[in-house]
Automatic annotation (TrEMBL):
The keyword NADP does not apply. This is succinate dehydrogenase. InterPro entries: 2Fe-2S_ferredoxin-like_sf (IPR036010), 4Fe4S_Fe-S-bd (IPR017896), 4Fe4S_Fe_S_CS (IPR017900), Beta-grasp_dom_sf (IPR012675), Helical_ferredxn (IPR009051), SDH/FRD_Iron-Sulfur (IPR050573), Succ_DH/fum_Rdtase_Fe-S (IPR004489), Succ_DH/fum_Rdtase_N (IPR025192). Its cofactor is [4Fe-4S] cluster; [2Fe-2S] cluster; [3Fe-4S] cluster. Residues 146-174 form the 4Fe-4S ferredoxin-type domain.
Amino acid sequence: MSEKKTVEFIITRQDNPESAPYDEKFVLPYRPNMNVISALMEIRRNPVNANGEKTTPVTWDMNCLEEVCGACSMIINGKPRQSCTALVDQLEQPIRLKPMKTFPVIRDLQIDRSRMFDALKRVKAWIPIDGTYDLGPGPRMPEKKRQWAYELSKCMTCGVCLEACPNVNDKSNFIGPAPISQVRLFNTHPTGAMNKDERLEALMGEGGIEGCGNSQNCVQSCPKGIPLTTSIAALNRSTSLQMFKNFFGSDHMVD
């Protein structure tokens, strides 16, 4: 009788933010159509490592399980990606799971993405509208502009582009590709344009758009295929125009 097929995982674990990381190996029975999340759930259900020793359940973040929320980002076989769409059949074994190193580790594969969310706050990545009552239909966006703006709106704040960017690290305060692209999205919106100057000023500050080294890792790694480098190029022009506008004190410059 042949042996049952198994799947091997080597998971980088860390008990708390201050402790040293270590690797732990797990061997699971193979199931067709298995993804990394289902494997982690199996380990959580029965936390026994490859040596047969009882261990603590592995900690990680997840929510939607369909590549929409961005919460389950981790490094899988050396590549930052979503674990919900990482299929075991398409991965080389042993499958190595690590937390994304750009963000502080909370425990095991769970990370603190506050750096990215703080950057989104800095650039005001939303459309502020006063009141809780119905304001009626807003201004319509031209269809041609709406089509490419929709591509930017697919961002799920997964942090993969920040992990792939060599300029985002603990020695740099560069805000990263995702917040920059969101500036372009909200400045394009007819109502969002009210705060256009404010967002551009945020990008022109320390750690803003000048921190981009144009490595283009972000656009290659984005799981949603968002044209991040196109947004960065467009905002290089917009911030340059904003600089001249500030210098000459003109409210009538074409942008």
